[in-house]
Amino acid sequence: MIILTKSDYNRIVEHALRELPDEACGLIAGKIEDNDKIIKKVYLLTNIDHSNEHFSLDPKEQLEAIKDMRACGFVPLGNWHSHPESPSRPSDEDKRLAYDSKASYMILSLMDRESPVLNSFKIQGDNAEKEELVIE
Amino acid sequence: MFITVAGEKKEVKDGLTVAQLIVDENVETPMYVTVSINDEFVESGKFEDTVLNDGDNVEFLYFMGGGQ
Lengths: 136, 68
Hints:
A: alpha/beta, B: mainly beta
């Protein structure tokens, strides 16, 4: 299970809507208790591809985020990105570039701008497994 | 000499290169790793030639990207 606060969910959605038509992206960090991932902080990063179909995190911002996580006592839990025009599921490119089988890959679909859909996945090779996401 | 890797201070041999450190640290998927030394990014083609110095602060950043 992965747990996200409602306010952090709103931050993700607001940032992703603001970045349209481009994909938006960022990192998630927090704590792992038993087998649950508890997201304590969401990082809103720049998509240096500035693309509607691709994203790459800005390495400089990524470095700052990693240092901030360490300073806060959090561990990296994964990343998130938006799909402006497609469903909330990993694309072939998402799978190809998901090299960390322990990470959570959160995907926000904005196909329906009024009703965004956020899912979280674990990805290993070509297999993407949806994990239970609790927004509270 | 002592360097800090991902926030952890450790002793390494003098003259260690970034390429050797990547091997020593068992970095997975090194082709997707960006390395910074004291907040300066090292060009990926220069890992073999970049020698670390005492007190350096090294971070490994894993490329994260994708697309819809």
